[in-house]
Design goal:
heterodimer; A: about 85% helix; globular
Chain lengths: ~260, ~260
């Protein structure tokens, strides 16, 4: 455990060394919140966003989850860089077992996502409280945090798995973009899940997209926050099961991929 | 001189075509934007939005193709970083081409290749909307061609001003976030709060989106008249192509790219 703590310290120091990156990410999230969400609030029909009071309140938890996802994804970028510059050789020379190294990197990616996301979650809770007077219970906050941690560590695993599949930075960046768009757009980040399901029933969008949106861990994460802050959709334990499955699959996949690369 | 400049531009276009993986993924990204977000958002918006835009899906598709043109034109800077990393700059400097020709060729190549890549996707969007006025489309394409040059120049200017690849990637992300959102690529100006609407009026992406929509016959939502849009794009192109050339040329002296 002590060794993993050293790895966490190493990754957190690296994280905070990227002041530019953090500033950039904050700007992007602010741009989404203060520009895009505000303009779309003027445009989206109340029939769609009425259950959440307005689109701004609906979208705030969505931005929180996208920020968590992007921050947790950052570890993949660093590991890709370490591979290209052969820093991984230095890491192998350290007195850690390979499992500790692999697991420590996945865990730190997930924790960094949580640390980055925390101010946005607080902002979302504050904004919701100002508009609706709702505050989540202690149990509600605990469930939100556990769910988000599982999304974060699963994302970290996904990112590491992808980063180890190519040494080319451009390919990694582009693949990351595509994964972002598929996971963001086929989810309830931008639009309510019941609205997507309604469009599926009407035959407007293919059922496959509805299924992706329903199974998407980002949908489960965003809807868990909405359940406890806005009261809609109702919380379902399947949401937690969904993100737990996502986390287990990608933590294991990235651990094995990392071990394979290190030993190769 | 022109022959040398064209040789450099040709090299950049050929290099671009080597990124098959990236080109395919970017096209998928564009399709995801339109087919997923555009389609669902079209159903989510109020009736007023459909009245103002005529058809929000078409409006959005015409805007997103401009954001794609912008993001592809920016891509030239990644090549510049790769060349600095792999020692290709020394090779380029050893060629019998003056530095000014080299730099001018990079700016032209960057704009040309992005335009060549995005033009077929623009045609897809135009076919979807329905092409009614070919002459207008021609004017719009010429203006967007200059816009792509201007964006390449801007990207080169930023790339040679920042040595760190990471910082560049992040700065570009921030710039993209605000420049795209504070433009009329995704939403009509009438639904933007006043302060945002003012900023959108001075945004080159707004000019590019407006001129493309004008070419496509989606005129109801334009905030600038076509003449001013073309003028804005020419000013943007002239400024950044000029600045980019000066910065890049200076950076090439004395190993400043390392």
């Amino acid at each position: 455990m002590k060794k993993i703590m050293h790895l966490l310290e190493y990754d957190f120091r690296n994280f905070f060394r990227y002041r530019w990156w953090i500033a950039g990410m904050i700007s992007m999230n602010l741009a989404d919140l203060i520009v895009m969400a505000v303009v779309y609030t003027n445009m989206v029909s109340q029939k769609v966003s009425g259950k959440y009071l307005n689109y701004f309140l609906f979208f705030s938890p969505g931005i929180t989850i996208t920020a968590l996802f992007a921050a947790a994804f950052m570890i993949g970028r660093e590991i890709n860089r370490e591979l290209r510059r052969e820093i991984s050789h230095y890491l192998l020379s350290l007195p850690f077992s390979r499992w500790e190294l692999a697991f420590g990197r996945v865990l730190s990616g997930g924790l960094r996502g949580m640390v980055y996301m925390a101010p946005l979650l607080v902002t979302t809770i504050f904004v919701t409280w100002v508009f609706t007077g709702n505050l989540p219970s202690v149990l509600g906050v605990a469930i939100i945090l556990v769910t988000l941690f599982l999304v974060s560590i699963g994302t970290s695993g996904l990112s590491i798995t992808m980063s180890l599949s190519t040494k080319s930075f451009e390919k990694f960046v582009t693949a990351r973009g595509v994964v972002y768009y598929i996971l963001f757009f086929c989810s309830s980040v931008f639009y309510p899940l019941d609205f997507i399901q309604q469009l599926g029933r009407e035959g407007v969008i293919p059922q496959l997209l509805v299924l992706i949106a329903e199974a998407n861990p980002l949908s489960a994460g965003a809807d868990t926050i909405r359940s406890f802050l806005l009261g809609h959709p109702a919380f379902n334990p399947l949401m937690m099961l969904n993100v737990a499955f996502f986390a287990i699959v990608f933590v294991l996949a990235s651990g094995f991929a990392y071990l394979k690369i290190l030993q190769g | 001189m022109i022959k040398h400049v064209l040789l450099v531009a040709e090299r950049d276009v050929k290099m671009f075509l080597q990124y098959k993986f990236i080109l395919i993924l970017r096209a998928l990204w564009f399709l995801a934007q339109i087919a997923l977000f555009g389609f669902v958002a079209n159903r989510m918006v109020k009736e007023d939005v459909q009245i103002v835009t005529g058809n929000y899906f078409y409006f959005y598709a015409a805007g997103i193709v401009i954001t794609l043109l912008y993001s592809m034109a920016v891509f030239i800077s990644y090549d510049i970083y790769e060349e600095a990393d792999h020692g290709v700059v020394e090779y380029l400097l050893s060629l019998p081409i003056s530095r000014r020709e080299l730099v001018l060729g990079r700016a032209i190549g960057g704009g040309l290749r992005s335009f060549l890549y995005v033009a077929p996707l623009m045609l897809v969007v135009l076919l979807m909307i329905g092409m009614t006025e070919p002459f207008r489309i021609l004017i719009a394409f010429v203006a967007l061609f200059l816009f792509a040059f201007g964006v390449s120049g801007m990207s080169i200017t930023i790339a040679v001003s920042i040595k760190s690849h990471d910082r560049f990637d992040i700065l570009l992300g921030v710039l993209n976030a605000f420049i795209v959102r504070l433009s009329t690529t995704m939403y009509p100006v009438v639904f933007m709060p006043k302060q945002y609407a003012v900023l959108a009026q001075f945004n080159p992406l707004t000019y590019a989106a407006d001129i493309f929509r004008w070419g496509a016959g989606l005129e109801a939502t334009l905030i600038t008249n076509p003449f001013l849009s073309v003028l804005g794009i020419i000013l943007f192109f002239s400024f950044f192509t000029f600045i980019g050339i000066i910065f890049y040329e200076r950076r090439l002296e004395g190993g400043g790219w390392r």
